Structure formats: structure tokens, C-alpha cells
Amino acid sequence: MEYRQLGRTGEKISTIGMGTWRFGTADNSKERENQVLSLRRGIELGMNLIDTAEIYASGRSEEVVGEAIKDIRDKVFIATKVAPGHLRHDDVTRACRASLRRLGTSYADLYQVHWPNPIVPIRDTMSAMEKLVQDGLIRYIGVSNFSVKETDAARAALTHNEIASNQVEYSLRKREVERDILPYCVKEKVTLIAYSPLDRGNIANSVPRSILQTYHMTPAQAMLNWVTRNEQVVAIPKAADKAHIEENASSMSVRFKAAEYEQM
Q1: How distant, in Å, are the alpha carbons of 19, 230, 239 from that of 69?
Q2: Which burial class, exposed, middle or buried, applies to 113 when counting CB atoms under 10 A from its CB (0-12, 13-18, 19+)?
Q3: What is the pLDDT of residue 255?
Q4: pTM of the entire structure?
Q5: What does residue 98 show for φ and ψ, rounded to 5 degrees?
Q6: Which residues are known catalytic residues?
Q7: 3-state secondary structure of 164
Q8: How far, in Å, CA of 4 to CA of 232, rounded?
Q9: 3-263 maps to which CATH number?
Q10: Phi–psi pair at 166, nearest 5 degrees
């Protein structure tokens, strides 16, 4: 497994992590068991980054993650997110504590603002985030779906900490972030966490057959390889079964040539 530094922190996270959107949605014990087992398999393969959020399945996604990391908390890097409706100072604190209870842990490695909320002053939110760091409830602060301007405002509102990451949609077919967000992240050493890196399952015919044959890769593996070609990017594809986890984990076995990335 390949690892990259999170922002300016010195923390190493797996280039390919595990997203958990819709985990816990179905009231089905077998499906939940499969989700837990898939996360455990990813951890075995070195995928230490697990991303979730309080709004995923109304918190049940965090519960699934909590079940998967039980007794192996020190082997994983847990990232979760506070909802845009909970961004006032005291609401951030309450939301964080509730997430930690569902995760079954005393701290989150990365706590992210899920979406910006123009109604709430960013200074209120960042003040609460810094207090959470001070109290040991979170280690690092991140944002999600923030523009460059919004990220700058969040950074300016912090007094003792840095914005470590910005989680945004990025895939071979969804490349809007390359206009300004990705260059900004590279310049400022903010990790770009790519969600939906497989374009929500729209994989077929996305990759030239010649590249797949040369590297003996599946289209999904090649797409993950492509989206993480920049050192500032990590990806969190959703994988609810062990076969997909194993496929994703192997996508970093070799890097393509620059001309092949350009061809894609």
C-alpha cells in the first residue's frame, strides 16, 4: 500500500482509503456484517484511512465503522464529518461527541466540515474545532466541498491549527477541481481527499484498453491510479464487499507513465 502525508501534519494515510456512504442504510444484519468484514479486510491490506459522516444513514455508518475498528483503533485513521446544520459553536461540540459515541472511540483523527453553511460565521465553527483539538477529541481539522475562497476563510479563522484537507468530488469524468481547488491544494499543502473517484460506478469504457492490457488492471483500478497521480491527492472509493476492497488495494501496484495519464 502507498501512503501520503496529510496536509502539513506529517501524518501518513493510505493513498486509497475506504468511503462508507450508505453503510448502515439497510436494516439487514447480513449486509451490515459484510460491510464490517470489508472494512476489516481493507485494514488488513494497509488501507488505514476510513471516512464516514454523521449524516450517513443518520449515524449508522459511524456505528458500522465503530464495529469494524473495535480492538484495532490504533491501526486506523478515522475521518468523520459534522453536518452543515451543526456548525454553530456548541452544536459542533455536541455533534462531535455524538459521533465519537457511535464510533466507539475517544477521538477522531480528522474532523471535517461536511458542507459550508453561509448562515453560520466560519469563525464560530473553527473556534469550536480548535477547542476540540485542545480537548483531545479530534487531532486534525478538515473541510469538505469548500471552494478556494471558503477554504481561505476557514484557514484565516484558525489561530493555532491548519486546515489539513479538503474533501471534494474528483474522478476521471468529474474534473472541475483541476481549475482551481487542486492547484490551490498543491500550493498550500492541503490534502485533496477525492470522493466518488469511480464516478459513482460509471466505469465502463472510461479507460483505454491498451493501458488495461499493459498493466493487467481493471478499469476501476486504473481510474483510482489516475485520480491519485498527484502526490497531494488521496481517494476514498466506497467498497461494501471484500472483492472490491481487494481490487482497490491493488490499484497502486505500479504507476503509469506521464503520457499514459495524459492519454486517459
Answers
A1: 14, 29, 16
A2: buried
A3: 94
A4: 0.96
A5: -65, -40
A6: 56
A7: strand
A8: 8
A9: 3.20.20.100
A10: -130, 120
